[in-house]
Specification:
This protein has 157 residues and is α+β, with helices and mostly antiparallel strands. It is built from 6 helices and 6 strands, in the order E-E-H-E-H-E-E-E-H-H-H-H.
Amino acid sequence: MTKGTVFGETGIDREKLIELKYLKDGNGYETGAAVMHRLGLTTLIPAERTFVSNNAQHRAKRDDTLGITVRAPRTPVNRENRFYLQFLDLLNMYDDVPVDAEDPYLLLGRYVQARNLDYGMLLHLADAHYNGNTIMKLAHVAGREDKYEKPKEAIEF
C-alpha cells in the first residue's frame, strides 16, 4: 500500500486503498460533483469525493482516513451495472450541482456512447431505482443521440 521512492517509502497510497476497500471486483463506483467536473459538466472543484459501494452501510458515511464519503447503492453494484448506475446518479444529482457546460446533454450523451451503454437498460434501471426527474433527463440525453460524435479519447473513471 505504500510507494517506494529514492528517498524511502511514502505514506499509504489512498487511491489504491479506496479501490481495494470500496471498488474491488466492480462492486462500487465514484459519483458526485468530482465526476461531473471530470466530464466537463461543471467548473466546480469539489472539496470531497463520493463513492457508492456494496461495502457501505445503509446510510452515507464519511471515511475520515481516506477523506471521502461512501454511501450504499440503490441496488447492488456489479461489473455489468456500475457504469449504468454511475450515469443515472449523475442525472439524479444534475439539479444539485451547478452545471455550467455549454451543452451538458451532449457531454452526457458522449459518456453513454463511450461506455457503450444501452438506453433500454438505462431506462429499466431508472424506472426501477430512480425518480421521474431522472427519467426525464435520460430522455433529454437520448433525444440528442444523433448529435454525438465519437469521443477522441476514452472516458476513464
